[in-house]
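User: quick one
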Amino acid sequence: MANISDTIEQFIKSFFGDSDSIQLSRNDLAHYFGVSPSQISYVLTTRFSVDRGYVIESKRGGGGSVTVAKIVGTKDDFLPELLKQTDALDALTFNKAASMTDRLARDGIITDGEAAIVKSAIGDRALAVPMADALRKNIFKEILVGLIRR
Amino acid sequence: MANISDTIEQFIKSFFGDSDSIQLSRNDLAHYFGVSPSQISYVLTTRFSVDRGYVIESKRGGGGSVTVAKIVGTKDDFLPELLKQTDALDALTFNKAASMTDRLARDGIITDGEAAIVKSAIGDRALAVPMADALRKNIFKEILVGLIRR
DNA sequence: AGGACGAAAGTCAAAGAAAGACTAATTTGA
DNA sequence: TCAAATTAGTCTTTCTTTGACTTTCGTCCT
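Assistant: Done. Structure below.
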């Protein structure tokens, strides 16, 4: 965790208390951490992506700001949706799959322990074969199917 | 013992104190010993492999690093033993893996929900690919490593 | 109302930082 | 001698950081 992006990510996350939406100023954050404003944008887009279960809205100009909101999903609607999306792909990178898995855990659809197992099973070391991304998609899909049926 | 790989191995091992996991920088180490970075990779993969009782994780890019962790366990620990046995195989059928998984659940090492996920991930539908048994062994191994580390 | 100005945030490309993969060469030990 | 282990080198991939430029919005001035 020696890079500043991770630190900023945690800092931003610490602002969600019970609320599932926060508002922040890109410039202020940049100043606070002594980095360039686009660094904040970078953290926002890489760490608070839709895959990870967040949406970002913003307003420019004087008094502008960035709003980060958690997308909350329930088991009943989110899992089938995720399955549909996954099925439509023909490959799935580890990062993407891990993001989705973390989000399932965040929303309480699976436990942290279960998330860890999923990530072990679809990690790059486990799938050290050609066409790993295609295979990963398949495995992840089967896991989702299993989750829906429970 | 006059070879530098052994020296580096010892040096790295000297960093584990009570802790069973350390973090290091490949470049720094390479520089420190005046060797090429890939030499460090070589030591890491040959001396800190799973069958020697270690796991390695890493992250690239700015602020990246390598984490080396001991697989801890005593003789009456079931998981490390199972890992060792699995690692020695070069293939693993679904039936065999499933019965090991069931046993883990029966013994309370993993929950039923976790067992179900494991079985989804290594099922024949998930691994519909040539050499499925070799791959399954690999995946199962990674799952075990993850379980031990938690 | 309309334009000028400043304050945000957005975009994108380039540079930098780290580890991984692959290959070739060399050394060592049986 | 010869296969396995070691060492080095180089290129690739991934992730991060920075900076320059653009777009949008609000306010103030006439």
